[in-house]
Amino acid sequence: MRRLALLVVLGSVVACDDKASKRPFGPAATDVAPPPASSGIAATLGAIGADAGPLDLVDPPAPAGDLAKELEAFVNVETCVSQRAAIDPLLADALRAIGYDTFVRDACRLLEAAKDKKRETCDRIDASSLRSRCKAWVAMLAQTPDACPLLFEGLPARGRGATCVAIAGKDPRLCLAEPRPSQRVTCDALAARSEAKCEALTGVDRAACVREVTRWRALLPTPLDGLPKLPEAKGKLVLAGEAGTADPKVTEVDLAPDVGRGAVMTAGLRDRLRVELGVLGESESARIAGALNKRTRVGLVVTLDAPRGATKEVTPTLDRFELEVPGELPLVSPPGKCECRVTRAHLDKTRGGEVSVAVEGTLAGAGRTYKVSFAATTFVRDVVTEDSAALTLPTRRP
């Protein structure tokens, strides 16, 4: 019988697990900073089992095999299941404990979808993380980057997985959009089909990188030649107190770390373009004072709405502006008051193109007023449409 709450929990754990983020074709890459190397759970377990020595939280990579030969030998799901059903008894116990009684069948559907290059086949897979990986396989093999799954279902503005887009689009430059160094190196090694590039990593990260290159080498496309260099990611935020508000302790902030992974361009009707820059927080953060040890955070949303046939220059719109100074409540406009103007807005709607935005003005709220000067330039890491969310949702489930 079909799962159940246990499977939902499993999907959530797999999608959020840092181990899954080491795999370049999964959906685990996010727009947030990576977690610390040792979690609270790991620290607790380490304290309990101190006599056993340090915990190794990452399993060694599985044998690489040859995905091209596996696809060539694939007949159908039923045959695949009968050939691979003899799972190690311990692994079978673990899968049964978490309620995943169709694990082998879902794994075989990876091959079915990859061989037929049919995205809808992936919708039959139960676990959301495995379903997303299946869609990434199809997109990369079909070389259709627009078919790569979104990082977050229902949130097109966060874009698609960087490795999927880079491999499917044959554009290794976009590996720079991966959030972790190990992911960027693995993506670059896959794009170049070179195990030698994995030598930049160490330990299990290197082994995992070599496994992916070995497994995929025969299927990976040759990357495009002569691609221009990506625009350099850079930027600065300058703050000053206004109307009786004292200057913050840090008045100039380097924005390069916030925009270094590029930006996602959202294209709408009538040539409407929308981009998010910096770090946008959750709405709940407006009720919580910033921690004293946090760095200054700024995030904004700019829109260019150019009706077809427009004969004059379109004025960009600042849809949202967020500012968080350490130790203070975040200022968010709207609903806060932002007497600001966009002094520069260059929004390219091609991957690898340039995004350049500058904003000047004053932001007020919660009894404080700051004069702000924001300027940032980066590259377009992905282009999505406002209706891209529909492509991430299962179209058919048995």
* Average pLDDT level: 82
Number of strands: 10
How many helices? The count is 13
Q: Give the overall shape.
A: elongated
Determine the strand fraction and express it as a percent band.
15-25%
Helix percent reads 25-40%
What is the oligomer described by this structure?
Answer: single chain
Q: How is the biggest beta sheet arranged?
A: 10 strands, mixed
**How many individual domains?**
2
**Distance between termini?**
11 Å
Poorly predicted spans? 1-55, 283-291, 391-398
What is the ordering of alpha helices and beta strands? HHHHHHHHHHHEEHEEEEEEEEH
What is the CA-atom radius of gyration, in angstroms? 23 Å
What structural class do helix, strand and pairing data support?
alpha+beta
SSE diagram, text form:
Elements: H1 5-16, H2 18-21, H3 40-48, H4 67-73, H5 77-84, H6 89-97, H7 103-116, H8 128-142, H9 162-168, H10 181-192, H11 203-216, E1 234-241, E2 252-254, H12 256-259, E3 263-267, E4 273-278, E5 297-304, E6 317-324, E7 331-333, E8 337-347, E9 354-365, E10 368-385, H13 389-392
What does this structure look like?
By secondary structure, the chain is α+β, with helices and mostly antiparallel strands. It has 2 domains: 5-226, no CATH class; 234-385, no CATH class. The chain is 30% helix and 21% strand. The chain contains 13 helices and 10 strands. It has helices spanning 5-16, 18-21, 40-48, 67-73, 77-84, 89-97, 103-116, 128-142, 162-168, 181-192, 203-216, 256-259, 389-392, and strands at residues 234-241, 252-254, 263-267, 273-278, 297-304, 317-324, 331-333, 337-347, 354-365, 368-385. Strands 1, 2, 3, 4, 5, 6, 7, 8, 9 and 10 form a 10-stranded mixed β-sheet that branches. A hairpin with a 6-residue loop joins β8 (337-347) and β9 (354-365). The termini are close together. The relative contact order is 0.12. Residues 1-55, 283-291 and 391-398 have low confidence and may be disordered.
